[in-house]
Each structure stands twice: as structure tokens, then as C-alpha cells.
Specification:
heterodimer, A: alpha/beta, Rossmann fold, 38% helix, B: Rossmann fold, 5-stranded parallel β-sheet, 8 strands, globular
Amino acid sequence: MKQLSVDHLTGIVDLTRQDIELILETAARFKEVINRPIKKVPSLRDITIANVFFENSTRTRLSFELAQKRLSADVVNFSAASSSVKKGETLVDTVNNILAMKVDMVVMRHPNPGAAKFLSQKIKARVVNAGDGTHEHPTQALLDAFSIQEKLGSVEGKKVVIVGDILHSRVALSNIYCLQKLGAEVMVCGPSTLIPKYISDLGVRVSHNLREALEWCDVANMLRIQLERQDIKYFPSLREYALLFGLDKSLLDSLSKEIVIMHPGPINRGVEISSDVADSAQSIILDQVENGVAVRMAVIYLLAAKIER
Amino acid sequence: MEKQVILNATQLELTLKRLSHELIETHDTFENSVLIGLQPRGIHVATRLKTQLELILSHTIQAGNLDITFHRDDFRRRETPILPSITNIDFSIENKRVILIDDVLFTGRTIRAGLDALLTFGRPSQVQLLTLIDRRYSRDLPIQADYIGKTVDTLTSERVAVEWKEIEGQDQILLFTKEGNEAAQR
């Protein structure tokens, strides 16, 4: 009989190891549920959830919506493109207007770092951060940890390298917090322009050599180059990036041990990862997507348990 | 707190044997019948019955565990949420005769949730209920068992605990009587 120590999921940084373990354990039960003939449980029948997306998303939004529907929650979707935000309404006003229609939980993606935390301090509903700019993407980190645990038995003591655009990646930061709290060692690898200067203060190793990093690790999490967030050129060309930091089959096969390949999606085939690696037996990219629904069900279920009646 | 033994180890074994024979009377060779134990405590009854039945029938029978946490009617009504247990049904229940098994039948709410959870796995041809202890006259819902180990008359404030050798160190069923009302019983 445990519960989360937090009322909102704004970032992994706020969670304790016990919280993370509780979420992963609950997610394992939900994974069994979504593989039943009837993939739905009635737990959240009396809960209404708003998915508020101020930034584009296909996978995360779909995953959250499926998770909510499989918990029997009522779901409303809202995207910035069709919203009154364009007419000059503030974030708090927008969300409070949604809450006035009796919504219990808000899942929000926003381009500004800290938006979810800010919102959680201003409104009465539970807030789940579905990505806030270059800051955190907690459910992605949780599903990555869940996938590693499922594949390798545990996260404790494992070596994980995160390769690519660390500077602009919310997935990287959340993953670093989450993996470290679960006792894993983390390395970041990429061109020096895409590695934040003081990232080693977080206790992570830094490498600029992909082969060296891959030889060290048990799991490689290949990130996408977020061109849409890059205001200047951080490397000469995509081709050069692919040659130096792209993972292809010959490099993977030349390693001294088998490593697990992950990617948070969307994949740019031929840039950070080649097609034959993405589709190889070592890749758990599609397991990550499946686990995403189970982990989000667990997060929503555990937060909903703390909503007062 | 006062403690009273409802069934000791010998009586419990005798009861399980009798229940096994009762099941065979109805389900014959268990060709189309399966046992489903309810988590967390009903699974031990199911395991014991499975062993007993296989001993008598000398062939294996199908059995699974079902967790009902997500189907409970007291979500957000409890102080602390219940941690779900493992569901483990690696066979189809479609058109099977299912024997739902729990240790204590009290308000009937667990069984109600169990029926709902069970039906997400398919459409059984029949569902029967077996309980080791039936706490008579304390039902909240119109649910009765088909096979009963022992019927007891208890007060709501009392608590029935089924203990097992492999967990508590001894096979026995106890009745705890306490001044005042204790917290939720299930």
C-alpha cells in the first residue's frame, strides 16, 4: 500500500527512487492489462483529463490518449493551433478555462522549460508534464527505464550512453535523472557543440567518440538531432554528423559485446541510426512505444489515486 | 485482541480434500474446467486445490491467478491505494467452466470485481465461486458461493485470517475479535 510522494509529475528530478520503482511496478501490471482481449479497466471512470498540447506531437499524445482511454477516463484534447492562445490568452487563463469545465488532470506539452511546474503551482488539477521545451520529458524517461528493466532484468549497475543532441534534448535530462536514481551509470556522447558545458556536474561521463562510448555501454539511447530547436548551425553537415555519430550495422557488429539499442522517436533513418540497426533484434524501439502506454497508465492511475473526492 | 482458531491444519487439509471431491462431482475430469485464484490471498487456496485435484485425477489441470485491483469499487475512496498483484492466466477462458476461488467471502465486493476482471479475458460458459470461509449474513451484494469450506457467523468488527505454511509458517484459519471497529478487512 504505497503511493507517490508527489501530486504532479512535472519532472523526474522531483521523484524519489521509491516513486520511480512504484511507477515501474504498476506499469508492469498495466502492460499485462493492455495485452488482454479487452484492454480496458474501469478504474478512472469518474476522472476527466485534458491533453493540452502547445507543441506538435504524434506519439506522445496518442500514447497518453490511449492510456487514458484504457483507464476509462474521459478525455478532451486541445492543441495550440486551434486555440485561443493565438488570440492572446495566458497559459493559466487557458488552463483555468478548461478546468472550469470540471477537468481533474491536465497533461501538457509546452515549448517553454518549466511550464508544467509553473502550471502545477497555479491550478488545482493534477499536472503531468508531457515535455516542456528542452527541460524534461518524465514519462519518456520512465518508459525508457521500464524498457531497460524489461530487457536486461534491472537498471541498477547498467551502463547507458545517450548519443546525440544532448543540448536540446528533454529526453536526455529526464533520462539522466531517472537512470541515476535507479543506480545506473550514464554517459553522454555527441559533438562538443551539442553537449552542455557543465553536464558532468550531473555526474555523467562525457565522450565525443561514438565507438568508445558504445564499447563502454550496455544500452545506447540514440537521440534525434532536433533541427527545429537549433537556432544556429552546431555541426557542418548532417552527412558529417551521420558519419561520426550515426550508428550503422557494421559499427554495431564490430563491438565486442551485444548492446541494446533504444530511440525515443521519431527516427531519422540514415542520420543518427541506420535502417538495419533500427530494425535489428538488438533494437527495442517498438517495445519502448508499447511500454509507453503502460507507463503512462501507471502515472495517471497513481496520480488519480491522490485526487480528492 | 482475542484469537480463536476456526480450522486447524488437519481440519483445513480435510476441508480442502472435501472441496476437491465436490469439484470433481460437478466438473468430472476438468476437461473443460479451469481454476482461477483471486489475488492476493485466493491464489493459495487455488494452488492447494490444484495439487489435490491433480493427485486424485492424476493429470494436470489449468489454473491461473487474477488480480482485481483495477476493477475495485473503492478506488480514490481509500486512504492509501492498493498495489496491484500479478495476473497470470496463460490460457483462454472462452467457453470454459471457470471456478473462481477466494479465501474469505465477506461483503461480496471482491467477487463482484473479480467477475468483471474475469470477463475481460473472454466469455466463459459458466462461472462458479468457491470460498474457504463464508462469513454469513455480511454481504453488501447479492453474491453466494457454490462451494464453501466452512460457514461462520461473525461481526463486522471481527477479522478472519487464513494462514498458510509457506507464508505464515502454519496452516490455520483464525478469527480475531477486537474491541471497536478495525480498518477495512479485505
